[in-house]
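Table S2 (continued). Query chain:
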Amino acid sequence: MVIRKIGGLQMWKKSLWAGLLGAALPVSSLYAQAPTPITITVTRSSEAPPVSIILKDRNARAVPTRACLNHTGGGNIDVQQPSPDTIVVTMTGTAVAYGGPMGAATAGWNIDLEQCFEISFDDPKVKKAKLTIEGRVVGLLRSSCKGGGSAGFSAATASIAVNHSDLVAINVPGKSVSSGENLSVNDQAGPVSVPVQAGTYTLNQTFQISTCQPRCILPCKAPSAEFAPDPALDPLWISNWEPFKGASKKDFGFQVTVRVAADSSDDTKPEGNAAAPLPKGAEAERNAEIQP
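Corresponding output:
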């Protein structure tokens, strides 16, 4: 009996070692495998433009004008540079005038900007550049058929000056409504391009919004000028029968875009009284006529 137990114990030990060895083989085989190669993808950023704009000093202000019962909001001046060769300036504001027995009401915004910037030729191969400016006005104008109120915008202008002399300018003509008129505005001026050299320039931009309503006894719809995204205009200030309900307002305001790009055009012209080249076939006919 003792021999059998000892023999069984030995067999049990052998089985145990065989099981441990079998379990260790897969682990050891994993370590024996060759490492999986790691692929690293490097994405190059877009190349910088050969000509760029560097923003310098800026002086900007948005001043509300208010009298009697009124509402203003969204007076904002946003300057962005989405790329090294582009700047975007957006002016926004909204105004509502609600006249009453106490007197006439007015509301509006006077917005102006003076932005200095430098045009830099980052590529030594660039000898000249082209500056392009364009602007657009997007918004809503409302008025009432009663009360004699009016709403509008004006002075939507932008100009670029060098050495205190205007180089290029754009103007979006103003618009106004009255006597129950309602108007959705989406106007654009430009683009206008001019040749430029490296140096310092100044962008001057202005925008005016105005609403007014005379003294009135009975309540009526308040005139409003809306040139700012939500929630600049409180819905309580406009009529329940809003004519522009559901309109997209994310692009409201006066926006000016300035771009600069390398100019590779050839401006060479024939000097003196050099004759223009003859069309194909004409030169052969002319030579045949000259020959005796």
